């Protein structure tokens, strides 16, 4: 498979199908309010920061997408609010007319039938190249480890510390892709994404009853969802892992 990876600015014809690509994201992950905000403006406000890929065997059919966002940050300490924080800081910088001093990856999504075929490393490399082309000295990323959902009660710092015996690379395959590409694991973002909803909304998103108080395991969630039936809400707070990619 030979991928052609460009920015959405170069190939605006992909804008119409950007969010329709078949993917493996759980439905509740699309309910983050800041995600909902970013996805409605990404193609018009940030097309230079959106990557699109198609396969030479099926030209014109989206194979993968990658989203980035420029933002400003005081100091050098990456924020604990990770994914949500990048979007909020990025939009506020734009509204205030501030010059962004950082750029963050937000997601790389591969079409479901192409998972496991080596697309993700190519998208990471293209994202690094695009960040450098846009004049940034590094790319940061609040990474969502791909196997963490299998261990929702394992603390993220403990999970991230695991390495393989043979090469000492990260145990998690998505973290391993980033490290192999030149990234450095920096810290955990403990509240990278927060998704709250009524019990009815969570039932619709997951098919689970959500009728008892306390933590509930949800397929695809990295930590349990906390349920409060007496007050009719449940909230999911997702930790991610900050990775730095030096580009110079």
Q: How would you describe this structure in keywords?
A:
248 residues; alpha+beta; 4-stranded antiparallel beta sheet; 6 helices; 30% strand
Helix amount: 25-40%
Shape: globular
H/E element order: EHEEHEHEHHEHEEE
Assess the beta-strand content as a share of residues.
Answer: 25-35%
Radius of gyration of CA atoms, rounded to a whole number = 18 Å
Say how many strands there are: 9
Overall residue-averaged pLDDT value = 96
Largest sheet: 5 strands, antiparallel
Question: Can you describe this structure?
Answer:
This protein has 248 residues and is of the alpha+beta class. The protein has one domain: Aminopeptidase. The protein contains six helices and nine strands; from the N terminus they run E-H-E-E-H-E-H-E-H-H-E-H-E-E-E. Strands 5, 6, 7, 8 and 9 form a five-stranded antiparallel beta sheet that branches. Strands 1-2-3-4 form a four-stranded antiparallel beta sheet, with helices on both faces. A hairpin with an 8-residue loop joins strand 7 and strand 8. The longest helix is centred in the middle third of the chain and has 15 residues. The two termini are 30 Å apart.
């Amino acid at each position: 498979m030979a991928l052609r990876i460009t920015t959405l600015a170069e190939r605006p014809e992909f804008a119409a199908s950007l969010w329709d690509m078949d993917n493996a994201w759980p439905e509740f992950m699309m309910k983050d309010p800041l995600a909902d905000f970013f996805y409605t403006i990404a193609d018009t406000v940030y097309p230079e920061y959106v990557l699109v890929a198609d396969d030479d065997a099926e030209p014109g059919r989206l194979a993968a997408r990658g989203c980035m966002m420029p933002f400003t940050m005081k100091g050098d300490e990456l924020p604990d609010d990770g994914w949500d924080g990048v979007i909020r800081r990025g939009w506020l910088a734009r509204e205030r007319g501030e010059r962004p001093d950082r750029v963050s990856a937000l997601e790389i999504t591969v079409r479901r039938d192409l998972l496991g075929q080596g697309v993700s490393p190519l998208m990471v490399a293209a994202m690094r190249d695009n960040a450098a082309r846009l004049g940034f000295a590094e790319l940061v990323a609040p990474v969502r480890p791909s196997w963490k959902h299998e261990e929702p009660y394992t603390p993220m710092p403990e999970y991230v510390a695991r390495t393989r015996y043979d090469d000492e690379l990260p145990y998690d395959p998505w973290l391993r892709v980033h490290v192999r590409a030149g990234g450095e694991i920096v810290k955990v973002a403990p509240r990278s994404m927060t998704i709250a909803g009524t019990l009815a909304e969570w039932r619709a998103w997951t098919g689970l009853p959500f009728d008892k108080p306390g933590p509930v395991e949800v397929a695809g969630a990295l930590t349990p969802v906390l349920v409060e039936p007496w007050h009719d809400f449940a909230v999911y707070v997702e930790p991610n892992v900050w990775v730095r990619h030096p580009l110079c």
